[in-house]
């Protein structure tokens, strides 16, 4: 009888690359029976770019690509889950009495794998109630995609951040394993809980097939940006600014793979129409095809000094670039900078708040040293093959599960 796994999700889209396409599918391949409990908002599930599915995925329970999907209405759960900040005495009566927790209990799984702060709270309820109602001792994983609360983020008042952190550290005492996405985040957890079982599983893609090494013979340069962005970020302005500067000096292309989220748009100035390419949303499995002609991959994280998560980030796109032999250009962020310097696979602009001018100067400088670009390209692909591809990461995932079930 295969062991049952239940992925418990509070706000990620159900086809999230890490949760669904990597972890759930890898566990299914390994022989686990995998179910995901995922939220509907205003009655809809959502695509990766925020587009609501209005004509598909309407059933409350369905199977997608071999994974059982059980849906619930987020609006009916959020007030219950927010009781995490209340006294623990009312958790069971007011906090755990929500559809997410109850639907997850009905799955009668052996391991519950949570992915956010609030789904962790639901997981605490699942673990306690499974033992109380069924006498079953289930295992609980907290997959910490980021630090919540972010100790430096002033979005919440300091008192609220302290309360959230206090509750997190309390809940971690009932967690059987923590998974996270960078070594710095792991170190933060161990500084607070030295005996916490924890593993780093990077946001790496499967190794790109049909890879061809980049030669960097031509005089033109294409910089790529992979991912979505919304109107709150200055990403669009920087893309236009970089292109304005570089297009005057060289044969320059900016390729945006993804782009604006649902409900927003990106207007390209008329004189740059031939220099900026927007592909729109691209299926995760086809990303390598779209990255074939990209010479340098760009990541810009804003307000780094006010966010430990941004300092410690190793985003999906970071590994996606390296997977395709693309050197990475970043602003000064601790974890990415350390990684790049260790593996010589990219270039760091020595500013936390880098401008379009800063990035343009770096790009034009890199273009002049094609031998260095080629070496960084080879280094990036080599470390993905030997250390960081999803094939390596899923072995770490399997090891965590093996330990929990032994």
Q: Key terms for this structure?
A:
eight-stranded mixed β-sheet; Rossmann fold; six-stranded parallel β-sheet; 2 domains; 406 residues
Would you write up a description of this structure?
- With 406 residues, the protein is α/β, with parallel strands linked by helices.
- The protein folds into two domains: 4-203 and 390-405, 3-Layer(aba) Sandwich (Rossmann fold), CATH 3.40.50.2000; 221-388, Glycogen Phosphorylase B (Rossmann fold, 3-Layer(aba) Sandwich).
- It has helices spanning 17-30, 78-81, 91-95, 99-106, 117-134, 158-172, 183-192, 235-247, 287-291, 308-311, 316-323, 334-343, 356-368, 370-388, 390-405; strands at 4-8, 33-40, 61-64, 67-73, 111-114, 139-144, 177-180, 198-200, 221-229, 252-260, 276-280, 296-299, 328-330, 346-348.
- Helix 4 (99-106) packs across helix 5 (117-134) and helix 11 packs across helix 14 (370-388).
- The longest helix is centred in the last third of the chain and has 19 residues, at 370-388.
Could you state the CATH homologous superfamily of the largest domain? Answer: Glycogen Phosphorylase B
**Coarse structural class:** alpha/beta
Please count the beta strands (DSSP E, at least 2 residues each): 14
Major sheet description: 8 strands, mixed
Strand content: 15-25%
- N to C succession of SSEs: EHEEEHHHEHEHEHEEHEEHEHHEHEHHH
CATH architecture of the largest domain: 3-Layer(aba) Sandwich
* The number of domains: 2
CATH fold call of the largest domain: Rossmann fold
């Amino acid at each position: 009888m295969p062991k049952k796994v239940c992925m418990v999700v509070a706000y990620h889209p159900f086809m999230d690359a890490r949760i669904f396409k990597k972890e759930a599918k890898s566990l299914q391949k390994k022989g686990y029976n995998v179910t995901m409990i995922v939220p509907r908002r205003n009655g809809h599930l959502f695509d990766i770019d925020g587009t609501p599915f209005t004509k598909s995925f309407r059933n409350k329970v369905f199977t997608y690509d071999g994974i059982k999907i059980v849906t619930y209405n987020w609006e009916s759960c959020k007030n219950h889950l927010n009781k995490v900040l209340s006294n623990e005495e009312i958790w069971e009566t007011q906090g755990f009495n929500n559809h997410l927790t109850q639907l997850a209990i009905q799955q009668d799984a052996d391991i519950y794998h949570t992915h956010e702060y609030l789904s962790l709270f639901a997981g605490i309820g699942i673990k306690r109630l499974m033992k109380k109602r069924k006498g079953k001792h289930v295992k609980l994983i907290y997959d910490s995609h980021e630090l919540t609360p972010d100790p430096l983020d002033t979005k919440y008042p300091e008192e609220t951040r302290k309360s959230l952190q206090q509750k997190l550290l309390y809940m971690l005492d009932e967690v059987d394993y923590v998974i996270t996405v960078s070594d710095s985040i792991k170190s933060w957890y161990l500084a607070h809980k030295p005996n916490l079982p924890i593993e780093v599983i990077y946001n790496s893609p499967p190794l790109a097939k049909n890879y061809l090494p980049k030669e960097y013979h031509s005089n033109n340069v294409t910089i790529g940006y992979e991912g979505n962005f919304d109107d709150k970020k200055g990403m669009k302005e920087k893309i236009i600014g970089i292109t304005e500067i570089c297009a005057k000096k060289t044969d320059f292309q900016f390729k945006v793979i993804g782009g604006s989220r649902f409900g927003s748009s990106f207007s390209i100035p008329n004189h740059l129409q031939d220099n900026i390419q927007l592909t729109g949303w691209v299926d995760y499995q086809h990303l390598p095809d779209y990255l074939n002609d990209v010479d340098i991959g760009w990541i810009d994280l804003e307000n780094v000094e006010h966010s430990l998560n941004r300092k410690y980030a190793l985003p999906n796109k970071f590994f996606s670039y390296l997977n395709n032999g693309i050197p990475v250009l970043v602003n000064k962020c601790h974890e990415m900078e350390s990684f790049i310097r260790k593996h010589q696979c990219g270039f760091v602009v020595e500013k936390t708040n880098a401008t379009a001018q800063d990035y343009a100067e770096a790009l034009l400088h890199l273009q002049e040293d094609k031998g260095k670009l080629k070496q960084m390209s080879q280094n990036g692909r080599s470390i993905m093959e030997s250390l960081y591809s999803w094939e390596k990461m899923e072995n770490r995932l399997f090891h965590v599960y093996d330990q929990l079930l032994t």
